[in-house]
Amino acid sequence: MNTTSLKNFFVSFSGIAVLLFLYFPLAVIVLFSFNGDTVNSFPVQHFSLKWYSVLFRDDELLQSVGTSISIALISTAVALLIGIPAAYAMHKYDFKGKKLIDKIVLMPITLPGIVTGVAMLSFFPFVGVKISLTAVTFGHITFLCAIVVTQMLARFKRLDPYLEQAAYDLGATPSATFFKVILPNIKTAIIGCVLLCLVLSMDEIPVTFFLIAGNNTLPLEIYAMMRRGITPEVNAISTLIFIFSTTAILLSMRLNKEK
Amino acid sequence: MTRNVMLYKCATQGTISNDLLPGPQNLFFEFLAERIFLYSLIKTIKFMRKFFSVFFASAMLISACNTGTSTSNAADTATIDVSKLKGSTLNILCWEGYAEPVFTKAFEDKYGVTIKATYFGSSDELISKLSNGGSEAYDIISPSTDVAGDIVAHDFVAPIDTKMISQWDSLSPQLRNMNDVIKDGKVYGMPFTWGPDYLIYDADVVKTEPTSWKVFEDPQYKGQVALWDDISNIYLIGQIQGLDKTDKAALYNMSDAQLQSAKAELIKMKPQIRKYWATAGELDNMFKNKELALAVGWPLTVAHLNKEGRNLKAVIPAEGATGWIDRLMITSGSKNKQLALLYLDYISQPDNMAKVLSAINYNVANPGSERFLSADDKKIADASQFFDKLNFWQTVKERKKYNEIWNEVKSAQ
Amino acid sequence: MNYHDCCTHYHITKLPNHQIILMKGWLKKYSLLLPLVVWLFVFLLLPYCFVFIQSFLETDSFGKTIPGVSIDSYQRAFSNSLYIGTIFRTLMYAVLVAILCILLSLPLAYWIAFKVKRNKTLLYTLISLPLWVSYIIRAYAWKIILGKEGLLNTFLQWAHITDKPVEYFLYSTFSTIVCLVYILTPFVAIPVYTAFEQIPKSLIEAAKDLGAGSFTTFRKVIFPLALPGIISGGTFALVLTMGDFLSPLLLGGPNTLFISNIVQNLFGTSNDRPLGSAVGILILLLIFLILGIASRSEKKYSSLKSDTR
Fold this sequence. Notes:
Strand content of chain C: under 5%
Mean pLDDT of chain B: 81
Shape of chain B: globular
Largest sheet of chain B: 12 strands, mixed
Largest sheet of chain C: 2 strands, antiparallel
Helix content of chain C: over 70%
CATH superfamily of the largest domain in chain C: MetI-like
Helix content of chain B: 40-55%
Distance between the termini of chain C: 59 Å
Order of helices and strands of chain B: HHEHEHEHEHEEEEHHEHEHEEHHEHEH
CATH architecture of one domain in chain B: 3-Layer(aba) Sandwich
Number of strands of chain B: 14
CATH topology of the largest domain in chain C: MetI-like fold
Strand order of the largest sheet of chain C: 1-2
Oligomer: heterotrimer
CATH architecture of the largest domain in chain C: Orthogonal Bundle
Shape of chain C: globular
CATH class of the largest domain in chain C: Mainly Alpha
CATH class of one domain in chain B: Alpha Beta
Structural class of chain B: alpha/beta
């Protein structure tokens, strides 16, 4: 073997090794979700679907799934309503403070979630918003706005500028242009963005951690279960979340690619 | 206002047709009509919400009538309209083990309600949750002796009408009359359980019963010891150093020098520690996964693990142990005060208290429960003789300082 | 009836034409932006300002504010080595995590960008997929792998490398770092891969034509050109580690205390919000500093790119 192919082999090997490293723990979880024992020791003594059935009978866990989904849906809807017009305005117009808004919008994602979480925790009681699921929803909307604005801006940039011009030339008003010409063209990007927002909202932990009281969202319910020591079901729910997130993100990526 | 509205309309529509041209009066009526419409919309929504909740409540009542009722020696609830309570959720903020289905399910079935429990892992967490709106989010809390007095003083809880608790006079007089929860002649807490923070050991690993807390420093158990992530470790060191031999309160009022000395001892012990457990469930898990030989813990862990066939034992070492007495309290912001009162009455019944003892091995406040206990459980109830040996938690005036010392211990490398 | 007649009818002074056009656009622009601006102001800027204000207050042990401005929190934050010391220790760990992530991302990104001919998009998707699986699950997996009776220990004993379980693997700084590196590697791999992809192939070919071996090409051409992307990814990992409190909480041992855990504790069990806010502001300042240094060095190294065009 000459040195080139040896080097190639070395590069491929290390690349694949890192990729496997990224997936190994996930494979472990999927494996152990079928583990019949309560203790997570290796090798797996006997396989069973026991934990999946326990999972579906766990009312608190199912309730937290419902809570997560409803918060995700509401937050995504509001974030879209706020973010898409804003992204459109930022794309079309130039104005003072555009860069500033750009930076501020991104703050929830650039700064660690704990900072946003404690900031909201301190501020909300001061204005009378009780620490509850409402507060959690406000927090989610805030960081989802950042996602929507960046994603939509990127999509608007890729949009054919002549479409808008053509519409104006044909006499359409600006609002008609937006609803009848632009919106249908970015439809797939919006759907992709929606999926992205849903997944991110369902996995949001730091901000939710500080703003929760009473009902838990799914990741916090899993965290509470881990704290209480009830662990085997966690493997099962984790596998299901893995499958769900993967499907949603793959769909979103497919849709975002289309023009 | 007129001019601006006009200009806006012109600007956005480009033209205005003749008939749509509003006169000044028309604009005002437009404005008024809009306001009336919004107002009536909001009122309708509120009415619909109320209507549906009453509808569902009565639907549940009708369906509950068909499932039959169970008998129990509950207090005279004639003064509480039970039908209105159906379908509500009782939110309990408590230590782990205080809302196990084995004793809460019957209550849920009897009144057609749901009990939702949120757990805290330390008294500080309880205070923090209460300060952040917990007194409205939760209905019942279970504070220990170290914070009960402060909670009452800060008006986080409502007075309990002891006449509604049929077993009140049967509860242990010593616990009933603790005056940290009595303010202006009113009682704010009902005694529930008490117990020790004692030394738990895995009898399969530690063959001889330890006699002193100093076994935690034994090199053969390096990395197999667990302490609670709480300032109570400072009390522990204080006890080892014998600070409370003459005055029990000395543990809770340590001077700066004593705190620094306790901090040094805890840092010295660090290499022995596997993890500082934050919740009893975490401790359960570590013993279950054979990660520990020794720990400070509560009877709850011994009960849970021995039920699964393990061999955990516990002992109160020679230096003594701290203990706690937990009361159940109703929060001042609770929207289910009557339901909470019913729960307090229910759980204080001797048979239910016996279930609690059997499930988590804590001593309970109703001596009448003894007749419902199995022989094994009677041994635990008998251990109430060590009630006088325990140094029950008291209020710590310098709690912030204790917390800072504990954080310093945790961050020391 | 148009605008002009409308104005004469109501005896309102006309606005000049260009001003009308500007106003049309102005209204459109701002009405589109208004919801976002209002939302961000109320839910982002005000809370951040509030934290800043809160750091100058004092509270009692039950969280009730004592009226009056005080710098007590800042004094305590600076005088007690607990806080400053932990900030620097966390920064050290963050740098370590960033470096490890970069070391792992380089071979992966290089392989996909330069050695893989087909299925590039698929592999790129595979890198980013783990990001979407819940954080808490990915952290939990390491509990299973690193425990006393977990996979790693069982394997080591089976291979006769050790004869009894190594406890240090779990509930220690080691497990926290491993978990953080695992979770953050995709965050770093993506910008690094993008940077590699953007290097014009002609440059690499030119280097090869001039007789450079593949390692020299990497050292002299690829790495410098991709440096902005690498810095960007590394900064991401650094900032996220500084703000992470879950990994130390789940997998950390008695010696693992990151600064975010202290902030979490101060806002939670210790109920000392002013001190928590003060420490939070300090962390924030440090992060802004890091981000500033990073963006400046990104600009500095990206000038290489424009030179070679």
